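fwd from M.: "can u put these together and see what the complex looks like"

so here's what she sent:
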Amino acid sequence: MLNYFPEEVLEHVFSFLTSHPDRNAASLVCKSWYNVERFSRVKVFIGNCYAIGPERLISRFPRVRSLTLKGKPHFADFNLVPYDWGGYVYPWIEAMAKGSTNLEELRLKRMVVSDESLELLAKSFPNFKSLVLVNCEGFTTDGLAAIASNCRFLRELDLQENEVEDRRGQWLSCFPDSCTSLSSLNFACLKGEVNVAALERLVARCRNLKSLRLNHAVPPDALQKILAQSPQLVDLGAGCFAHDPESETYNKLKNVMQKCSSIRSLSGFLDVNVRCLPSIYPICINLTSLNLSYAPGIYSKELVKLIHKCKKLQRLWILDTIGDKGLGVVASTCKELQELRVFPSDFYGVGNVAVTEEGLVAISAGCPNLNSLLYFCQQMTNAALITVAKNCPNFIRFRLCTLNPTIPDAVTMQPLDEGMYAEQLEMLSIAFAGDSDKGMVYVLNGCKKLKKLEVRDSPFGNMALLTDTGKYETMRSLWMSSCGVTFGGCKTLAEKMPRLNVEIINERDEMEGRPDDRQKVEKMYLYRTLVGPRKDAPDFVLTL
Amino acid sequence: MEKGVAYDNDMNLKATELRLGLPGTDESQKEYSSFVKSNKRSSEEMDSSCNEEECAPAPKALVVGWPPVRSYRKNVLQQQQKKSDSDVSGMYVKVSMDGAPYLRKIDIKVYKNYPDLLIALENMFKCSMGVYSEREGYNGSEYAPTYEDKDGDWMLVGDVPWDMFVTSCKRLRIMKGSEAKGLGCQ
């Protein structure tokens, strides 16, 4: 029956399908649905930028307005991927500019973004509204200046944890006086000075500004003036919060803060004088999200005082300086907590009071709605984990890392679902774990929904790699480094599976002609692709 | 996590159990020397009292990408540490040891963390202070390091974050272990 609906009706129905998996499923039903879906798809998500090419993207989805792209493998976060491995956004922007795509939104993660790309982006898409860059690199504040100058309808500029070369930017002054559309501005990761007067004027004329995250270079009196102009803010990232508590500025700040009753999310405090913290007490009661993981200056005692007032907290990111006792306070205060991340404050020493399984067990007992966890701790026990799982049945994201200093321990990341937890697993990260190939085979067999597997320093070899080669076409990618796979094993896999790119990544000094088949491979990254070996691979990457 | 894994002997599923611990071990610790190069000095002097519950003070971790924290985050935190370090110039404090005929003076700004400081004190006074734990302090060791803080109270070294310790420490006293027992128990 549905085949006889006019396409306009199908299109209207599809407009209610917003998730990518749903849309992908709809497009597989029949040719007519495939066509209606592809012409109506506005948001495209590409989890691996080398799985498909920009030209194919544009020809299949000509009406795309929002593109999300991810580049480097996840382990690039931990310096395991060489600097110029790849992940360049320029070809995508170039292709869309040529294809006259009406691009409005670009969200990138772990990609290399040059100033040239940003300039091309800024000049090619007149309706461009939103740029979100997470964990990217390759650009400078000059690229930001191009965006500010040319994107007349810019609503969102969100820079999260990027490596940006700071050219003493006047980039903020490049927003023309006519720009009043900003609703979200996040430049917390920028290391340099900003033109504070330009910032104040920008904030004053953008009446829709809801989210503002400042870097450390915005001085206290500017913060106070900005907040006075924008009591409607919902999300604030305070960079510098080191006022002189005796000063007039601090007095003004205290008064202004009380009026900021819309703030629900607070972060930053990169530079803090703990004696100024009482100024935020009035808004604590409204907070649902608090990120103090970049504020080692806030000691456990002050942290606890603050948290006591945050009874509605749903998300908390914090350093392990909070200690088990501090986590106990969180457990008894934040009954609505859903997401907790406890980061290490001391990477190599055991100087600080860190957290143990006690803190986590306390949290699980006090916060039954906990569904997302990242926990770096000194020690953990299986018994504690069982207790945690019993107390909190709703985990969708679970990451645990024991910092045991003499011997590194396993890092696992797994979404937990009621009962069937391994079957729902989409991503798994394994380090220094396992006894034999059976471990990896078990994971590959049991985790039906596995999309990404990354393994380092574990004794899995060719047997594990080659047992179920078809599995890799159902996954986005597999990373194996410092394991037991050999060059010969990788070659075999590549020959068997032509639709996989099997990349061997060699550190430069090790590259000496083609290695022997029996030689162990230091780093291997494989992923499914429709476009064959990539043309931008550097010479230390060998695609088999 | 609640559904236990059935241990079928044929499949040897125990080998594939997802658990926290070293490969090939149940409770005991195993050297993974190919991955971790330890700072010899600290592991020899401080390993003696290490048991399963207490971790030995860290050798410098030389494993690439460990702990798994983004470099952005590491850089930001280390920058802030440097900043607060350079704020105060040279912090010389007197150090006394029970039974020693005269005091010494050290610059605590020179040290980056507690293990560094403790190693230096142990060398200077030829004593052993063992490993710190939040619950037991330096229980079991011959000596324990204590300090006088800004309020004039005598505190056990190791309880507060390092940076806080550096700014609040007025003088150090290496106490006999038997006397320090009271301080260790909270």
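replying to her w this: Confidence is low (pLDDT under 50) at residues 405-420 of chain A.
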